[in-house]
Structure formats: structure tokens, C-alpha cells
């Protein structure tokens, strides 16, 4: 459907400027008339022009905006509004203090548009690369209910939780990745620099070398002769993988499906996904966002395409009248405890409370799983790397143990 931008004045004299989707301009004009709004200006927005405008607005602002940045922004704005400052004054103050240039410039633009009469949510919606849909929807509900500060503080708390989950995932993956990279460099250094020196010594002595030493020297020669090709392969493979993951939906979905099947990893993925899903649903639902919209946003924030498609499937079933717990159960991806708690929430009319309980439960379980994996991986990596280096050194020094036999022969 076509998108329109209009500017109107309501019965109290307030200026309203919004972007909306309607079947036609005539339908929109009729709706505005029924709402008692006096139209000042209306224009149809071409999607292509809108996209260009969006790019123009967001690209010059610099680096990306993290969950932590959004959390700080929402908490500061919510606190200032709660303290009695106007939205415009609060935005102006925050924009000058934000360390993230992109977010700072977006905040300045939002302040300018609000000063012109646009709603905060509509102004934020102009910056889709800065303000997520989650924030825009919470702000819109806050504006409609007169509790903008509360909505912003809820958004801040939500992004603090999400940032904590992502930080845990990074910390869980950083240590083993770092150890493997360092170990690979050490082993490569031994093969590239140390082994050839010993090979020359053994060659001068003559005699037949033990099989492990022969294999080690062969590996060293292969590495030295093929190093440029190996580096090129790693770079090209990494680039292709990254490109496909970013641009190919089928490839990304296959990786996400694999992550749900690999032992230990699937436990981590499921718990982090359930925590994000429940936290998103609980925050949006308790704030008054429509259930269908809450489902859409929760699916987008799940972080896993397979889970997202399952959430979309459940959303359609719920919109057709099926209970939420049944719709989620049919996907086969949601744990039984989630289904049971949602059913209790629906039966008792306390779905938002149950979703909050599920979120807290899986956030705690996720923390325990990450800590357990780190404790399990650390000794395993140390033993594995120590074993590899030990075998290399044994193979390297084995001929020395038989030096007398080599000299005699």
C-alpha cells in the first residue's frame, strides 16, 4: 500500500506530522476528517525516495549503535522526562553528551523534528539504522498512554539485559578462540622456523630418521612451500563465508539450523534465544503493544532464522484464534517448560507476568550454561594444545635420543 506524509492541526492547536500507510489518499483524508484534524499538507512518499532519504540521514553519522548505547540513551531520556524536563530539552542535553556520533546526530534530528511538531516515535522512525523497531514501538505506546518516561526506562532495562546476554556469548567464545589462534601460531612457528633447522642438522648426520620425525619434516616442508596459498585460501574462504552469511538467506538459515543441532552449542543457543524472546514479549506485551506486533518484533530479535520462522508461524496461528501455547508448541522448537508456563499465563490472564518469569529463568540458565562451558572448555583446550605441542617436540627430539645410532651408521 502507498505511504503518505501529512501535517495537520488537532482541535487543541497541536501540530501533528506523521507518516502512515493507507490504501489511497481519499481514504486517508476521510480518516483525518473523522478524527477532527485540520489538514495542512499531505504528500505521497515513493518507497525508493524514502529509502534514499533514509540512507542520506543515517550513513553520515559514523559508526554503529550498540545495545549498550541504546540502553544509555533511553535511560537518560526517560530519567530526564520523569524529572520534569521537556522531551526537546532532554534530547538536546543528551545529544551533546553521547559519545556515539551516529546516535548523537540522530538525537539532534529527533529533537528538531519534535520541535516542529512531529511525535517522538515518528521522528525516531526516520532513523531505522539507529533506533530499533522495539524502541519505536515502546515510545509510540508511551506517547499514546502518557507514560513516555516509563516506556523509555523499560526499553533501557530491556537493552541492558540483551547487552548482558550478548556480552556473555562473546566472553564464552573469546577465550577458546584466543587460545586456538595462539596455539596455531605457536605450532606454525615451530614448523616454519624450528623444524627446518633440526632437519638440516639431521641431514648432515645422515642415517634414517624415525617415522614421526619424517612426518614432522614433511609437514614443515609443506607449510613452507604452500604458506602463500594457505594464507590466500584462509582469506578467500573467510570472505566467502562472511559474504554468504550476510547476503544469502538460505546459507545463513543452514548455519542457524546447524547451531541448533551441535551438542552443547544448541543448549547455549536455545537458552539465549528463549531469554531474548521472552524478554522482548514480556516488555512489549506489558507496555500495551498489540500481540501481533509483539510477535513480529520478538521474531526479529531472536537472532536465529529458524526460531524467527517458528515465531512467525506461531503468530499467524495466534491471529487465527489459536492459543499462544498451542501455536508455539506446534513449531517443535520451544521447550516444554516454556509452553507450560505460557499456558498457565493465558489461563490465569497473567501472560505478561509469566513471560517475565520465563525471561528471568532462561537468563539465569544461560549464565549457568556459559560458566559451565567455560570451565569445561578451559582444561580440554589446555590438554589438547599441550598434547599437540608435546607430540611435535617428541618427534623433533626423537633422533637425538638415537644420536649414537645415527653417528655409527
TrEMBL record:
**Name of one Pfam family that matches:** T2SSF
Q: Which residues cross the membrane?
A: 174-195, 226-245, 381-400
Q: Which domain of life is it from?
A: Bacteria
The Type II secretion system protein GspF domain covers 73-196, 277-399
Read off the InterPro entries from this record.
Answer: GspF/PilC (IPR003004), T2SS_GspF_dom (IPR018076), T2SS_GspF_sf (IPR042094)
Cytoplasm as a keyword? no
Give the membrane topology: Multi-pass membrane protein
Q: Name the major location.
A: membrane
Q: What keywords are assigned to this protein?
A: Cell inner membrane, Cell membrane, Membrane, Transmembrane, Transmembrane helix
Protein name, per record: Type II secretion system protein
Amino acid at each position: 500500500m502507498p505511504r503518505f506524509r501529512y501535517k495537520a492541526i488537532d482541535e487543541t492547536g497541536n501540530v501533528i506530522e506523521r507518516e502512515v500507510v493507507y490504501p489511497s489518499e481519499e481514504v486517508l483524508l476521510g480518516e483525518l476528517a473523522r478524527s477532527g484534524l485540520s489538514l495542512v499538507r499531505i504528500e505521497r512518499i515513493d518507497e525508493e525516495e524514502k529509502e534514499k532519504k533514509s540512507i542520506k540521514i543515517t550513513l553520515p553519522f559514523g559508526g554503529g549503535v550498540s545495545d549498550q548505547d541504546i540502553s544509555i540513551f533511553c535511560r537518560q531520556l526517560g530519567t530526564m522526562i520523569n524529572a520534569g524536563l521537556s522531551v526537546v530539552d532532554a534530547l538536546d542535553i543528551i545529544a551533546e553528551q553521547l559519545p556515539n556520533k551516529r546516535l548523537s546526530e540522530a538525537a539532534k534530528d529527533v529533537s528538531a523534528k519534535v520541535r516542529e511538531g512531529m511525535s517522538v516515535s515518528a521522528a525516531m522512525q526516520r532513523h531505522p539504522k539507529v533506533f530499533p523497531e522495539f524502541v519505536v514501538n515502546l515510545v509510540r505506546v508511551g506517547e499514546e498512554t502518557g507514560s513516555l518516561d516509563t516506556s523509555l526506562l523499560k526499553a533501557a532495562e530491556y537493552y541492558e539485559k540483551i547487552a548482558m546476554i550478548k556480552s556473555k556469548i562473546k566472553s564464552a567464545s573469546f577465550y577458546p578462540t584466543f587460545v586456538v589462534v595462539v596455539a596455531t601460531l605457536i605450532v606454525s612457528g615451530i614448523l616454519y622456523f624450528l623444524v627446518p633447522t633440526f632437519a638440516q642438522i639431521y641431514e648432515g648426520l645422515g642415517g634414517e630418521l624415525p617415522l614421526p620425525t619424517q612426518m614432522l619434516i614433511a609437514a614443515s616442508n609443506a607449510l613452507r612451500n604452500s604458506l602463500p596459498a594457505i594464507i590466500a585460501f584462509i582469506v578467500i574462504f573467510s570472505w566467502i563465508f562472511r559474504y554468504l552469511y550476510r547476503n544469502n538467506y538460505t546459507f545463513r538459515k543452514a548455519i542457524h539450523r546447524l547451531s541448533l543441532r551441535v551438542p552443547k552449542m544448541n543448549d547455549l543457543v536455545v537458552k539465549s534465544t528463549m531469554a531474548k524472546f521472552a524478554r522482548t514479549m514480556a516488555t512489549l506485551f506489558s507496555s500495551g503493544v498489540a500481540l501481533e506486533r509483539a510477535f513480529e518484533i520478538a521474531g526479529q530479535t531472536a537472532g536465529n532464522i529458524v526460531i524467527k520462522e517458528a515465531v512467525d508461524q506461531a503468530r499467524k496461528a495466534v491471529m487465527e484464534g489459536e492459543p499462544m501455547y498451542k501455536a508455539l508448541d506446534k513449531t517443535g522448537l520451544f521447550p516444554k517448560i516454556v509452553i507450560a508456563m505460557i499456558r498457565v499465563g493465558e489461563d490465569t490472564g497473567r501472560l505478561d507476568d509469566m513471560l517475565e518469569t520465563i525471561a528471568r529463568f532462561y537468563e539465569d540458565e544461560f549464565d549457568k550454561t556459559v560458566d559451565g562451558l567455560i570451565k569445561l572448555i578451559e582444561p580440554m583446550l589446555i590438554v589438547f594444545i599441550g598434547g599437540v605441542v608435546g607430540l611435535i617436540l617428541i618427534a623433533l627430539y626423537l633422533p637425538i635420543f638415537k644420536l649414537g645410532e645415527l653417528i655409527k651408521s
